[in-house]
Amino acid sequence: MGKNKEAENSASRLNMISGKTNAFFNIVFIVVALMCIIPVVFIFIISISSEQSIKMNGYRFIPEAFSIDSYLFLFREGETIIHALGISILVTVVGTALGVALTTLMGYVLSRSDYKLKGFCTMIVFIPMIFNGGMISSYVVNTQFMHLKDSMWALILPLCVSSFNVIICKTFFKTNIPDSVIESAQIDGASQLTIFGKIAIPLSKPLIATIALFLTFGYWNDWFQSSLYITNTKLFSLQALLDHVQRNIQMMANNPTLGVTMQQYMNSMPKEGARMAMAIIIIVPIACTYPFFQKYFISGLTVGAVKG
């Protein structure tokens, strides 16, 4: 007993962090947190700055004049914003649900040691983590063979499955679902699909939360797929709409061939503030969802990373 206590005390002393080290880590974490928070605060301040103040003095943390014209402009364009928001929500929800289902199924199959094609399929999944066919080949496949252009599926399917996520699922299932449990269920006559649905999934909440958050962030922040495959403005997501505004608003405002009404409308629009206000609208929903999944996200990511 005495030796065990001494060993435990020795281990605890080795794992202790000195006060200086702890203070250093706290400072590092505070700096990193500020690096994440300050840009968002700065964007919000710009969104409530008057357009004239921005033109005269540029971006400032404390503008000379505040204004909510940017948000009033977005409110007037509410139909377009709400439609784009609906597209973003639909793509995120459907893509995340489909991605979680496919990724966990693939990860579970590859985690089973008795699966005959395990080595070959693992290699097939692993290769895209190193290199892929390139953007041109992906574009040709998605448009010419799968006919996804100007389709909602063009925003969903290309991001649905990631090799990295599949490897995380494989590692999680292999290290957290004992073979003895699987064998016991098989003896009782359960199929692999039944085992997956009634045993593996209920024990995998951290994993599902981790994969779901990865996919949610990916779908919510994506604008690149829209720039490749979408020409119909009715299918623009909120992020694609922001990108479209970002690239074209200045061109429209300076184009002398536009009609007087359109020219006056563009000149009166709070250009910089509207961009930042739309960015805030994009940031807030996804930022509000993260705290609800933080516990599962951290534990699931840790398991996949440490034991992989």
UniProtKB/TrEMBL annotation:
**Which residue ranges does UniProt annotate as crossing the membrane?**
23-46, 81-108, 120-140, 152-173, 193-220, 274-293
Q: Name one Pfam family in it.
A: BPD_transp_1
Q: What are the ABC transmembrane type-1 domain coordinates in residue numbering?
A: 85-293
What organism does the UniProt record list as the source?
Kineothrix alysoides
Family classification: Belongs to the binding-protein-dependent transport system permease family.
Q: From the Swiss-Prot or TrEMBL record, give the protein name.
A: Putative aldouronate transport system permease protein
PROSITE patterns per the UniProt record, alphabetical: ABC_TM1
Keywords carried by this UniProt record: Cell membrane, Membrane, Transmembrane, Transmembrane helix, Transport
Where mainly located? membrane
Single Gene Ontology BP term?
transmembrane transport
